Amino acid sequence: MRSLGPRKSPIQARSAATVDAIFEATIQVLLSHGLSALTTTRIAKRAGVSIGTLYQYFPNKDALLRAVITSYLGKVAASFEESCSAARGACLLEISEFIVRGYIFAKCDQPERSRALYAISSHLEVADVVEKVFARLRAAACRLLESCKDASFKNADEVAYSLLAALTGGTRVVFENRDAEGRLPAFTQQMLTMSQAFLNKSASQNATI
Fold it and tell me: 11-59 has which fold?
């Protein structure tokens, strides 16, 4: 069974820069040549490193692709967590908007990359990575809902789960469509409407309001 883990972690700044260059080259080759023509030789050439250097960090192409997805999804989670943290203590309407726009912004900062990485994830075993990232999103959204100043939830965790399941699943469908960028504005507005209605229905208004 082939290893899908990296050979070593980039501890020094120079090593981290090399790995970042390899990650960027992987995405660029994927965008320009497609998944079927994605090879470690092309990636190394695009990154400006030797194939031997690439294999110092990643034992095979699948391990590299898994690392790229893990890094990308980690950044999405961090961006969403930051957005939720900034909205702590807001009203329900604002919280709804922060959750929807915070996630979509994190995914849509560079839409062509998101589309390419969705294609990769369909060919790799990354369920464990996705599960861990979803847990981070869920926890951040739950904390935000619990901080709401004008509403409360009997089970904020389950509300966060349901809302994010719809949001993440819907976003993936959009990005797997060739006209993703054209559909995003309408999709975002529809998700805002759905989120606001769902949270209003799920919330128990505070007695002080």
Answer: Arc Repressor Mutant, subunit A (1.10.10)
CB burial of 15-42 (b: ≥16 within 10 Å; e: otherwise) equals: eeebbebbbebbbbbbeeeeeeebebeb
pTM of the model: 0.87
Task: Give the single-character DSSP code of 149.
Answer: S
Amino acid at 40: T
pLDDT in tens, 123-170: 888 999 999 999 999 999 999 999 999 999 999 999 999 999 999 999
Contact status, residue 44 vs residue 26, Cβ threshold 8 Å: no
SS3 content of the chain, % helix, strand, coil (to 5): 75, 0, 25
* Intervals of CATH 1.10.357 along the chain: 62-204
For 62-204, CATH gives 1.10.357
